[in-house]
Amino acid sequence: MLTVKAKYALRAMLDLAHQAAAESGVRRPVFIADIAQRQDIPRRFLENILVELKRSGLVVSHRGKHGGYALARPPEEITFAEVIRISDGPLALAPCASRTAYKRCDDCPDEATCVLRHILIEVRDSTAAILERTTLASASKLPLDGLTGRAS
Q1: Inside any domain, residue 85
Q2: Are residues 65 and 1 in the same domain?
Q3: How many domains in the chain?
């Protein structure tokens, strides 16, 4: 299940993509308070999320009067899969089905014949395919109010 942290990270990244689109592609810094208010995200929680996204190279921060956060790359180059992996870790439902954090399950007698593992790999592949082709740019064409559940 997607955590609240990942949902907030996606909403913040989409907000930054919307701001860049509104500025004709210019990625100007956006204040945390503005993102928090528009997306109904607790500011402290958002600060921690943005610091993590900055460490991972998805956003940049600027200090000063005109400071804030902006996307580090164009929204066409940032996928949902990347944001979710940074926030929540691997997309797979079990470690034995993960490509990025594979670990054999302790209670599995034989991975080669484990039906559960084979199904979870299919689920991971399908999920990853959708999330890896969904960029902030493609998703930001949708109404932003739909992200928070608030009416337009």
Answers
A1: no
A2: yes
A3: 2
**pLDDT tens digits, 15-63:** 999 887 776 666 789 999 999 999 999 999 999 999 999 999 999 998 8
Per-residue 3-state assignment (H helix, E strand, C coil) for 4-64:
HHHHHHHHHHHHHHHHHHHCCCCCCCECHHHHHHHHCCCHHHHHHHHHHHHHCCCEEEECC
CA-based radius of gyration for the chain: 18
Cα–Cα dist 143/127, whole Å: 23
The pTM of this model reads 0.84
The token duo for 106 is 């302790």
Q: Which two tokens stand for residue 44?
A: 């402290």
Q: Which two tokens stand for residue 32?
A: 């945390």
- My answer on whether 120 and 144 are in the same domain is no
Say if CB 85 and CB 75 are below 8 A apart. no
Q: In which domain, by residue range, is 59 found?
A: 1-78+136-152
The Cβ of residue 44 has, within 10 Å, a number of other Cβ atoms equal to: 10
